[in-house]
Amino acid sequence: MKHVPVRRRRSGRPVGLGPATRGAALAVAASFTLAACTGASGSEGGGGRGDGAEDGARPARIAITPASDTSAVPVDGKVTVRADGGRLTSVKVTANGPGALNGSYSAGKDSWTSAAKPAPGVTYTVEATAGTGGRQVTERSTFTTAEPPKARTFVGEYNVDKGSTVGVALPVSIVFNKPIHDKAAVERGLRVTASPAVPGAWSWMKDRDGRDRIDYRPREYWQPGTKVSLNMNLDGVDAGGGLYGTQTRKIDFTIGRATVSTVDVVKKTVTVSRNGKTLRTLPVSTGKKGFETWNGTMVVLGKVPTIRMNSATVGIFGPEAYDLGDVKWDVQLTPSGTYAHAAPWNEGKFGRVNGSHGCIGMSTADAKWFYDQVHYGDPVTVVNSTDTVAVNNGYGAWNVDWAAWQRGSALG
């Protein structure tokens, strides 16, 4: 049977929703304020005041705009640094999320101007060094820009739970609540690390509802016991279209036991193994002609002990229609409605005849056993069927070869 559930996307559960976006921005009309930061408050080299007297050079003074320790700074101007009585030798403007703010020096190197305006809702750090007569002065400054209006922000809804243990086939998946025009900029703000380290890659796609989505998978299944971290540094990241990110997250999770299931629609069996050792082979009944079970690897999305299955939710009407209100031991494999579940009405067909509308049916006892063995993120691979499951129908990443998967990255 097939049934379309509501895809769960909330933080802290399978297919979780990231915490709420920030509040509306402060309405700030003031422009950047020039702040004269003297060398006396910076770090001085070359022996201090005595050296200055000996070489006749007055210490350079550095002025940074916006002023240090200011907040709610409007983003209608650029960052500027000026050296009075010296030449700038180094200017660095950095922030988590959007990263470095590049710029250029004037011809005489007595001023520096950022190439772009700062991003909203971000704390920037400025470090500038200037010198004269062999004497160096360094100034450090921080400022925080005003929050963007909520209508101009985006967030990513992620599918991993902090501190959770998941199956070896679970990709990290993020679905965005607004269209992402600059995918490369957003991808640069995302990072997955693993211990032990494994090769992996991000790949962009459209979710089933049309929203922009990016998934990360290793080249092969995760190894049991691997410690994985998802880092989202999207504060202030410009996604194009006037949208800016508002998230900084670090989500740590662990890969559990390798429970792998293989369904053979010709043999009409499902074989379940754990850490390479076969546990059991069960007789099943898969999709009949015209309703064949998806071929390829699907990933367990969740489990419920009882569910109602109504064929109208997947567009099946007429003689093939059904409405079953007490279907037991349901393991969801795709948002389009593919489950492995108990199907006592097909008793006598298990291991002999494929008679379902696309689900993987088994006896009530076998379905309960299967339900108890598999967990969120475990792979279930169907072989010898037709029509491979789509990459965005749940987590179909494993049905794309590695080279094609890498081509889905916006970073090339």
What would you call the quaternary organization? Answer: single chain
Strand order of the largest sheet: 24-23-22-30-25-31
Helical content stands at: under 10%
Relative strand content: 35-45%
CATH architecture designation of the largest domain: Beta Barrel
Over all CA atoms, what is the radius of gyration? 29 Å
Give an overview in words:
The longest helix has 10 residues, at 364-373. 42% of the residues are buried. It contains 4 helices and 31 strands. It is mainly beta and 412 residues long. It folds into 3 domains: 35-145, Immunoglobulin-like, CATH 2.60.40.3780; 150-257, Immunoglobulin-like, CATH 2.60.40.3710; 259-403, L,D-transpeptidase catalytic domain-like, CATH 2.40.440.10. Helices cover 7% and strands 41% of the residues. The protein has a 6-stranded mixed β-sheet with strand order 24-23-22-30-25-31, covered by helices on one side. A 5-stranded antiparallel β-sheet has the order 1-3-5-8-7, with no helix packed on it. Strands 2, 4, 6, 9 and 10 form a 5-stranded mixed β-sheet that branches.
